[in-house]
Structures are given as structure tokens and as C-alpha cells.
Design a protein that fits this description.
The complex is a heterodimer of chains A (about 110) and B (about 900).
Chain A (H helix, E strand, L loop, with lengths): L12 H13 L3 E2 H12 L5 H13 L3 E9 L5 E8 L1 H18 L3 H4 L3
Antiparallel strand pairs in A: 1-3, 2-3
Chain B lengths: L2 H4 L5 H8 L4 H21 L2 H17 L23 H15 L1 H30 L10 E10 L2 E5 L3 H10 L3 E8 L3 E6 L5 E8 L3 H5 L5 E2 L4 H6 L3 E5 H8 L9 E4 L2 E9 L4 H4 L5 E4 L4 H4 L7 E7 L5 H18 L1 H4 L3 E6 H4 L4 H33 L1 H9 L4 H34 L17 H29 L13 H37 L9 E6 L9 H16 L4 E7 L10 E5 L6 E8 L3 H5 L3 E4 L10 E5 H8 L8 E4 L6 E8 L14 E5 L9 E7 L7 H11 L5 E6 H7 L2 H35 L1 H9 L4 H29 L1 H4 L11 H27 L3 H8 L1
Parallel strand pairs in B: 5-10, 7-9, 16-21, 18-20
Antiparallel strand pairs in B: 1-2, 1-11, 1-12, 3-11, 4-5, 4-8, 6-9, 7-10, 8-9, 13-22, 13-23, 14-22, 15-16, 15-19, 17-20, 18-21, 19-20
Classes of the chains: A alpha+beta (about 110), B alpha+beta (about 900).
Chain lengths: ~110, ~900
């Protein structure tokens, strides 16, 4: 079975944000930290459930892997779902970044609204 | 709960809100993350801010869509669904949806089936309680009742047993493990010292009575040989008495109770179930000692006898055994026993009494109702199958197999059957609730409004039977027809289906005729029974029992005195025109005595009556010859009824003749008068000879009832009567206070009950048939709309079109009526024992039933047929071509 090349996959805007957050957070990222990272960086107030919709989608695409941890008291005895970026995910972020960079080259002064 | 941690918990309701729409496999992680972040936020930014944030998150989670990725998800474990629906449930759901879309059809089908199942469940419940439920004794098939048997006018009649015969037969037979007797005359005892004085129904029984039934006591022991022999004053109580009067006292055994002034020691309590065949209304059992005089008494018959067959002995062998014993007695005591033989009836077969045969009739009637209901349903299903042919055609074309379609139709029918069964059980409960008011005493237990497991099982079973009857063929047809109709347009309808439905209508009309004929026969019979003149005038008469406990009224003189005082007190009440004492009130429990006219040998069986003077006037029984009793007769004198006089002396005058009471050696009583015959057991039984003696000279003074004729409605006097009796003796009970009209009325209560059920069934059958016919013709006409349209377009007169449709109705009705009348005639023999002074083949009744049903049928067909004439020719042609 052939998996579609991660480089050719088109990533949605939010998928890109999650992948980049994973890149930053390292191997033990999970829902709450991802959400907070994105909110912190972009100022977007996200619904927690939206993060999971995206994580599931990324996992389905073979870009991330999830692992379920142990029950934790502060979470009311609930477990964490840890998310790890896979090499394919890293390539996909890279490809997206490259495309983005290639496209915006020379336009930086016109794009920054600040 | 730890307060510090509690303060950090997120709002519970927000968690619920967030959780309820989250996919199960995501819920734990999302809620965990939210909780974690809530806690972090409440420490960093304050609790209220965190709470606001949390609620916002909860709302967004609740309102958001939670799509699943479409990509190649490869879960480690197969997806767990909380509830995987078996395929049949899809059909059930589909069927329910279909029924909801056609509420008219659904209601008609369920209601029809509910009536059919309800009728059967009601009959079953009564039959179960009265006949079918296993008797609560070990090996009940070995229990028999022993009767004296005589041949009268070529028919065998049975009677209770004379004590002498009982003693002889018990000694002479070898087929029984136990042979026990009880005094079959109603006997009572006044219970005092426990609350208000109360009259108990008491049964005196021989030593092995309990052993014959093989029943174990609830508490203590039963009565044994020693109890009667030593006259220990022991008593066994019924469970209901023990519960009601003694508060279910577990230490009752050994306690002393006072019965009619005598003290008795309670030795045991019998469970309620014991009474079923051993005294259903008995509240206390006392030992019965048979003294030498009683053991030699072959003339008075008042022993009920029960026996238990030895293992391996057949009923026929036992009958031969007891008949041989009876034959020896008839040689030895020709005066009393010349014609007396004996017979045995299994207690199981005797259960339900006269009701047994009625149950068969009622079960048949209920079965007919169910058949008619099923015919209607089958017809409905056939019609529906045709209208749904297109649907099935499409589904078959899409690849649904023949069997798949059949299964689906059957599941639809199953749903209807299940709903029908549920509604039917409710209906049966209602039917019995209504009929409970008219049910005879013997049936009350079977007519409670509750529902038992057996009835429920019966309803479910019936639902399945009806499912087979109404669903299988239509399902097969409709599914098979599926492929054909998708493109074909109907013009003249499906002939074969129409033929099948016509046959169903003929069948159900036939059944309805049979039911209607039977119901009419029963109604007419009841009307005739009620009009029977009992020979006395029950209107304005009432009666009650006065007990005469031996301890306070030890001899005949004391009892006579008590009675005289009571009668005087009651006569003094305003509204009372006459009061007297009588040993047996008409229609109450009877036993007979043997009388032998002086100089003759043939005994005459008659009901003995002891009366005070004035009873004939109170009863309005007319004197035909001689004179009535006076208050002070010098010698022992008697009065006989006309029938007695005729069988003893033919047309000769009986006045001045003498009669031996009991046996030829018995006392001689001189006849002073002849009175008219009157009915003594029921309105239907015919007259029986009676022999009256006056209480002032009879050498015994039996338990007496008081008979009062009032000039006002009797119930107005009841409280005055109670007070009057209490004035005479404050410990005296007034028991079984009732009007004679009620007594007479209750003798036809079984007939009323049968008729109530049967008449109800007949009306249901009539309605169902009418609905069936209406439905058939409505559908036939809808189906042949285009044909009618073409006929009208080509110039047919509307009336001719209606006539065309009605011709079929005439044929179907005619065939149905003919079938029904033939069926009713063929089965009329079954009804013979239920009709009264009426032939079960009475042509007037047959004609009447046929006319009613024929009219209903034609009207039911005519209503939809009118629609055929109103078909719009142009519209139909447009649709058809």
C-alpha cells in the first residue's frame, strides 16, 4: 500500500499550526499544551475539541503518532493523549514552509501589516 | 471532600455540557485537557476567569461538529459501538415507521387483533382459574367424589350420601386409600371473644378427611381419628380466618377459641389453597363423629364424600367396587336403598360444575371472534400488499431477495401481533372487570381485573397463532407479486387476491352468523328463565339466619323460645307484614329425605321443611286442600306439596293419610294439607316434592332462617332487624341477610355471565364482520376505479355501476349466511343444554340472526359502493391511459 507523499499533501491552515506547535513542543506534546501554544503565539482562542479533530486528521494522514498516558489526578483521573511528530509530519511542515517561503519571497515588506 | 481540591474542580454542569456530544474515544482526553487547563488558569488568573473560560470552551465543544477523519484510519482495535442492532431490529424499526405513517391501518389492525385476543384471554383466564389450574393436592387425579346415584326418567341423577351408606361403603370397598365424609349441610358457628361476634362457616369432617386430600397444614396439625373419638374439642382454622381474625398469630396452635358458646383448642391452620375442593368458603373444620344412630341412618342424605383411589386402581374398577357395596345395601335396606346405587366423579372433572360445559362454548365463541379478527387482518394485509406492490417491486429490482421481503412483511405482522397482544391483555382485563359484577360466586376468583402469567402466556401464544393465520399467506403473495406491478397498471384489480378476500368475507360472515344464532338462543333462554314463576312470590321477601348455639339453647324448648321471641320482635317492626321461621329458604342449599306413605313400600324423596305457622302466607304459597298449621298442633302433622301428593296417592285425597319419615319404622306423620308446588333449587330445575312439618310439633328443631315479608323495600328494614335480634340476645349474629329477589337472581347469575361474554363476543363478531365487508368493498372499488370510470364514460348509469359492485356483495353475503346457518344447525346440539324451553334449532331465531347480519353486510358493502358511481370518468381515463 502506498502512502501519499507527505510533500505533496496539502495541509490546512490549522493543521500547519498544530504541526509547527508540535515541532516546538517536542515529543511529549498533548492537547492542552498544543492549544495553549497556538493561542499564546497567534492570539487565537481555540476550542479544545478542535485541536483533537485536527490531531485525528493528522494521524490519519500518517503525520503524527499518538500515545495514551497514565491517569493523572489533576485531570480528574483522566489520561493524556500524547502526540509525537513523525518524520513524514516533519517533511510536510518543511514542504509547507518551503512553499510558503518561495511564494512570499520579495513580498515581505508588503505582507507585514505591523 | 478536601476543600482545597474542591475549589479547583471545574464546574460540573459545564463538564457535562462539553462531554455530551464529544465522541466517546475523544471525550476523556478533551475533558482531561480542559480540566488541567482550568486548574492552571484558576491559579494564574483567578477562579472566575477560569470558570468563564471553561464555560466558553464547554459551549463551543457542545455546539461544534466533531467530524471524523475520512482518511485510512487504522485503529488498533475494531471500533466499539455501544449497541449493534441485529438485522431484525431494522425490520422492526421499519415496520413501526410504516405503521406510524398509516395510523388508520395500524389502529384498525391492532384494535381488531386486540378484540380477538382479548376475548380469548378473558375466557382463558376464567377457564384457568376455574378448571385448568392444577389442584393444590398431591396426585389430584386420584381424588374422587362419591355420590349416591338414582335413575329418574331414564336419566342418572346424583345426590349426597346418607351417613349409613357412607359407613357401609367405607367398610365394604377396597379401592380407596381414604374414604372421608363431611356434613354437606351448611353449618355455622358463632365466633365470640375475638372482636365482634361473627358467624363462621364450619365444616365437620371425618378423621381421614385431611389425609384424603393429602394436604399439609400451614401451622400445627390436621384432625385425626383421636379428635373425633375422644371429642377433644379441637378445631382447624382456615388461613383467611387466621389472618383476618387472629392477625396471623404464629402461636395460635394451642389457643382456645369460643365457637357458639363452646370452647375449642386450635390444633392447626390450613393454607388457603386447601379449600379449593375441600370447602372453598369453610373457615373452620371440626371433627365429625358418627354415632351409632347416624351410622344406621339410610334415609337422610347429607354427607359429602371424598375418597382417594389406591395407586393403580382405575376409576372404572373403583366405580364397580362402590356400586357393588351400594347393591348390597339396597338388598339389606330395601325401604330406603332400593333404588340407590353409587358413582364416582374425579374431583378434577367436577371442578367448575355446570360452568365446565359453558366454558367450552365460550372458548369456541372466543375462538370464532379471533378467527374473524384474523380474517379481517388477512384481508387488510392482502389489500395493503397490493397497494405496496410498487414498493416491493422496486426493492426486488434493487436486489432484495424474495425471502428478505417475506421476512420483512412477517416482521411487520409480528409488530402488529405484539401490539395486539398487549392491547388484548388489557382488553381481557377490562372485559372481566365489567363481567365481574354479574359473575356467579364460583367465578369471582377468576374474574379479578389483574393479569396473571398464564393469561399473559395465553395472549402471547394467541398472538403467534393469529400471526400465522393472518400474515403468512398475504406476505407470501405480496412478496411474490413484487416484481410484476412496477410497470403494470391495474385496471380490473388482482382477481386472485380479490377472490381470496371474498372467501375470507364469506368465512367470517359464516362464523358471525353462528355466533349470533347462539347468542340469540341464549338471550331468549335467559328471558324465558327470568319469566318462570317460582311458585312463591320473592318480591318484598327477605331472609337471614339465626344461629342457636347449643350451649345457650341446649334443647328444643329453648330454641323454640328464642325463635318465638325473635319473630315477635320482628313482626312488631313497622313495614313487616309477616315473619316466620323456615329450615331451608327456597334456592338455598337443599338435601332430601325419604318418606314412605303408610301401607306402601316405594319411598318418595322430598325436601324436608320445618316451618313456623304463617310461612305459607309469607311465601304466598297457596293452600290447595285441607288446612295450614296452627300455632298449637296437638300431634305431629305434615303438609305436602301437590307433586308429593300425586306421586304418593295419585288423585286420591291425601288429607288424613299418614307417612313414615325416613324408614318404614320411622315416626308416622298425619297429612293435614296440600300446598302448591314451588321451585326450590333454581328457576330452571323444575319442581321437587316437599314435606312440611311445623316447628311446634317436629321432634327436632333444625337450624332455622327467618323469612320476612315487608311492605316497604326490604333493605330499609335491615338495620331495624339487626337491632331487633340484638335486643333478644346481644351475642346473637344476624348472618346472610339478603332479599329473596337477590337469592333468585343469583340462581341465574351463571346464565347472565355466560350470556354477557357470549353476547359480547357476538356483537364484536358482528362489528368485525361489518368492518371486514366494508374494507373489502372499499378496496375493491378503489382498485377498480379505472374500470368504473371507463364504464361511466361509455354511458353506464351510476346506479348500474353500484349494482355491479353490490352483486358481489349479495353473492358473498348469501354464501356467508348459508354457510353460517348450516354451521349453526350442525352444531346446535352443543347448545341444547344451554337453551331453556327453546329448541336450539328454532327457525325464528335462525331467520332473525340471518336478517340482522344480512342487513348489516349489505349496508357495509353499499356505503363504499356508492363511491363507485361518483368516480370522475375523465380523471380516471387520464390516469389510466
Amino acid at each position: 500500500m502506498s502512502r501519499p507523499d507527505s510533500a505533496t499533501l496539502s495541509l490546512g491552515d490549522f493543521e500547519q499550526l498544530v504541526l509547527i506547535a508540535l515541532l516546538r513542543l517536542g515529543p511529549d506534546a498533548y492537547g492542552a499544551t498544543i492549544r495553549r501554544e497556538i493561542e499564546h503565539r497567534t492570539g487565537r482562542d481555540l476550542a479544545m475539541s478542535a485541536v483533537y479533530v485536527t490531531i485525528d486528521r493528522l494521524e490519519a494522514k500518517g503525520l503524527v503518532r499518538t500515545r495514551i498516558g497514565d491517569p493523572i489526578a489533576e485531570r480528574g483521573g483522566r489520561r493524556r493523549k500524547h502526540v509525537t511528530l513523525l518524520p513524514a509530519g516533519r517533511r510536510a511542515v518543511n514542504a509547507a514552509y518551503r512553499r510558503f517561503k518561495a511564494m512570499v519571497e520579495g513580498l515581505e515588506h508588503r505582507l507585514d501589516p505591523a | 471532600m478536601n476543600a482545597r481540591h474542591a475549589g479547583h474542580d471545574p464546574p460540573r454542569w459545564a463538564t457535562r455540557l462539553a462531554g455530551f456530544r464529544l465522541p466517546a474515544d475523544r471525550r476523556e482526553f478533551v475533558l482531561g485537557d480542559l480540566t488541567e487547563e482550568f486548574k492552571e488558569r484558576s491559579t494564574s488568573r483567578g477562579r472566575s476567569e477560569a470558570t468563564r473560560w471553561y464555560w466558553r470552551q464547554a459551549w463551543r465543544t457542545a455546539l461544534a461538529r466533531h467530524p471524523r477523519p475520512l482518511g485510512p484510519l487504522a485503529p488498533a482495535t475494531p471500533p466499539r459501538r455501544p449497541f449493534a442492532m441485529p438485522p431484525i431490529l431494522y425490520d422492526v424499526r421499519y415496520a413501526l415507521r410504516g405503521l406510524k405513517q398509516q395510523p388508520g391501518f395500524a389502529a384498525a389492525a391492532v384494535l381488531t387483533l386486540a378484540l380477538g385476543i382479548g376475548a380469548n384471554a378473558a375466557v382463558f383466564r376464567v377457564a384457568w382459574q376455574v378448571i385448568l389450574k392444577p389442584l393444590p393436592y398431591p396426585e389430584p387425579h386420584r381424588l374422587v367424589r362419591v355420590w349416591e346415584a338414582y335413575t329418574r326418567n331414564g336419566r342418572q341423577v346424583t345426590n349426597v350420601v346418607a351417613p349409613g351408606n357412607f359407613v357401609d361403603w367405607r367398610g365394604a370397598t377396597h379401592s380407596f386409600d381414604g374414604f372421608a365424609a363431611y356434613n354437606a349441610l351448611r353449618s355455622t358457628g358463632d365466633l365470640t371473644g375475638v372482636g365482634d361476634p361473627a358467624q363462621l362457616e364450619v365444616r365437620t369432617v371425618t378423621a381421614d378427611y385431611f389425609a384424603v386430600f393429602g394436604a399439609a397444614p400451614l401451622l400445627g396439625r390436621t384432625l385425626g381419628a383421636a379428635d373425633a373419638a375422644a371429642d377433644l374439642g379441637t378445631v382447624v382454622l382456615s388461613e383467611s380466618l387466621w389472618r383476618q381474625r387472629f392477625g396471623a398469630d404464629l402461636h395460635i396452635v394451642g389457643r382456645t377459641i369460643w365457637l357458639s358458646g363452646g370452647s375449642y383448642t386450635v390444633v392447626g391452620v390450613m393454607p388457603a389453597a386447601f379449600g379449593v375442593a375441600a370447602g372453598p368458603t369453610t373457615e373452620a373444620w371440626l371433627p365429625l363423629a358418627i354415632g351409632p344412630a347416624e351410622a344406621a341412618n339410610h334415609g337422610a342424605h347429607y354427607f359429602g364424600v371424598v375418597a382417594r383411589l389406591k395407586r393403580g386402581v382405575t376409576l372404572d374398577q373403583a366405580i364397580a367396587d362402590v356400586t357393588a357395596a351400594a347393591a348390597r345395601d339396597s338388598l339389606e335396606f330395601p325401604a330406603s336403598n332400593k333404588e340407590t346405587s353409587a358413582t364416582l366423579v374425579p374431583i378434577e372433572a367436577e371442578r367448575g360444575g355446570t360452568l365446565r360445559s359453558a366454558m367450552v362454548l365460550l372458548a369456541a365463541a372466543a375462538g370464532f371472534v379471533l378467527l374473524i379478527a384474523c380474517a379481517n387482518l388477512a384481508s387488510l394485509q392482502l389489500a395493503r400488499g397490493l397497494t405496496r406492490a410498487r414498493e416491493f417491486g422496486i426493492r426486488a429490482a434493487l436486489g432484495a431477495s424474495h425471502s428478505r421481503l417475506i421476512v420483512q412483511l412477517l416482521v411487520e405482522s409480528l409488530v402488529i401481533a405484539a401490539l395486539g397482544a398487549a392491547a388484548g391483555v388489557a382488553a381481557s382485563s377490562w372485559i372481566l372487570g365489567v363481567l365481574g359484577h354479574v359473575a356467579p360466586q364460583s367465578l369471582r376468583a377468576g374474574t379479578g381485573a389483574g393479569i396473571d402469567g398464564a393469561t399473559l402466556a395465553c395472549a402471547v401464544g394467541l398472538a403467534f397463532v393469529s400471526l400465522l393465520l393472518f400474515a403468512l399467506a398475504p406476505a407470501w403473495r405480496a412478496a411474490k407479486a413484487g416484481g410484476r406491478f412496477t410497470t403494470q397498471r391495474l385496471t380490473t384489480g388482482d382477481r386472485r387476491a380479490a377472490g381470496a378476500r371474498l372467501a375470507l368475507v364469506v368465512g367470517q360472515l359464516g362464523l358471525a352468523v353462528m355466533l349470533l344464532v347462539s347468542a340469540t338462543l341464549l338471550v331468549t333462554s335467559l328471558a324465558r328463565v327470568i319469566r318462570v314463576d317460582p311458585g312463591f312470590d320473592p318480591s318484598g321477601l327477605f331472609t337471614f339466619d339465626v344461629s342457636q348455639p347449643g350451649t345457650r339453647y341446649p334443647n328444643v324448648a329453648a330454641r323454640r323460645q328464642l325463635f318465638a321471641t325473635v319473630l315477635r320482635e320482628i313482626s312488631a317492626l313497622s313495614g313487616v307484614s309477616a315473619a316466620c321461621g323456615i329450615s331451608t329458604v327456597p334456592f338455598d342449599q337443599n338435601f332430601n329425605m325419604t318418606y314412605i306413605p303408610e301401607g306402601q313400600t316405594a319411598p318418595i324423596s322430598a325436601y324436608p321443611r320445618t316451618v313456623t305457622s304463617g310461612c305459607f302466607d309469607a311465601l304466598r304459597v297457596h293452600l290447595l286442600a285441607g288446612r295450614l298449621f296452627t300455632d298449637h298442633e296437638a300431634t305431629r302433622v305434615g303438609i305436602v306439596t301437590k307433586q308429593f301428593a300425586r306421586s304418593a296417592w295419585g288423585d286420591a285425597s291425601p288429607i288424613g293419610r299418614r307417612v313414615h319419615v325416613g324408614v318404614t319404622s320411622g315416626d308416622l306423620v298425619e297429612i293435614i294439607g296440600v300446598v302448591g308446588d314451588s321451585l326450590q333449587t333454581s328457576l330452571e330445575a323444575g319442581v321437587y316434592p316437599q314435606f312440611f312439618e311445623t316447628a311446634s310439633t317436629a321432634n327436632t328443631f333444625p337450624l332455622m332462617s327467618v323469612l320476612v315479608r315487608s311492605t316497604v323495600p326490604p333493605t330499609l328494614l335491615f338495620s331495624g332487624v339487626r337491632a331487633a335480634v340484638r335486643r333478644v340476645d346481644s351475642d346473637q349474629t344476624v348472618a346472610r341477610l339478603r332479599t329473596l329477589e337477590d337469592v333468585v337472581g343469583s340462581s341465574v347469575s351463571e346464565r347472565r355471565f355466560d350470556l354477557g361474554l357470549f353476547g359480547g363476543f357476538a356483537i364484536i363478531a358482528l362489528l368485525l364482520s361489518a368492518v371486514g365487508i366494508y374494507g373489502l368493498f372499499a378496496h375493491l372499488i378503489a382498485e377498480r376505479r379505472s374500470e368504473m370510470g371507463i364504464r361511466l364514460a361509455l354511458g353506464a348509469r351510476p346506479s348500474a355501476v353500484v349494482g355491479l359492485m353490490l352483486r358481489r356483495a349479495w353473492i358473498a353475503t348469501g354464501l356467508g349466511l348459508a354457510t353460517g346457518l348450516v354451521g349453526a344447525y350442525a352444531t346446535s346440539g352443543v347448545l341444547r343444554r344451554f337453551t331453556f324451553q327453546l329448541s336450539p334449532t328454532d327457525p325464528g331465531i335462525y331467520a332473525g340472526a340471518a336478517a340482522v347480519l344480512g342487513t348489516v353486510a349489505i349496508i357495509a358493502a353499499w356505503i363504499p359502493s356508492r363511491r363507485a358511481a361518483r368516480v370522475d370518468p375523465a380523471g380516471t381515463l387520464r390516469d389510466t391511459l
